[in-house]
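Thread: quick sanity check before group meeting

JM: Hey all, I'm pulling together slides for Thursday and realized we never actually wrote out the predicted structure for the chain we discussed last week. Dropping the sequence here so it's in one place. If anyone has concerns about the input, flag it before I start.
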Amino acid sequence: MSGSYLTPSGFLRLSASPREPVLFRSYNAAHMKKQHGSVIAAWIGCIMVLIAILAVAAVTFDKELVKPLFIEYVTGGVMVGGLIVFIAAWFLPERKTWRGITVMLWSLIAVTSPWFGLLFLVPWAIVAVALPLVIAILRRQSRLTKPAIA
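JM (edit): ok, ran it. Output follows.
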């Protein structure tokens, strides 16, 4: 049989291609789907942080938008978004490269920003300045983990 091979357990498997067994193709497809899910989760967290930063920027220009507990809600949004990005970045394929480390550091700064007390705007400024770099990294990850259309 030209399209078959023996598995390590001794069973005969049929394959469409003798060079790439079915077993490995299905694993790669499942693995890529999991990685793509991590990228989507990272995008969701990044957008949550972006919305919170834009809300704070809008409030600095118009003080009438501030309601009681505004800072608490915005800070909570940044913390949750940063935590989602950190967890998703942990499962990205390039987490050990400078890109993955950058995304993880960015998310850790977002998560720990309320610990600075009234100086929370300084870490948020760092998060806002590094946001284009994180978006570029996530765009690259989205292209790499996008499932191929056959």
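AS: nice. The beta strands are 4-6, 12-14. Confidence is low (pLDDT under 50) at residues 1-6, 9-16, 20-27.
JM: adding both to the slides.
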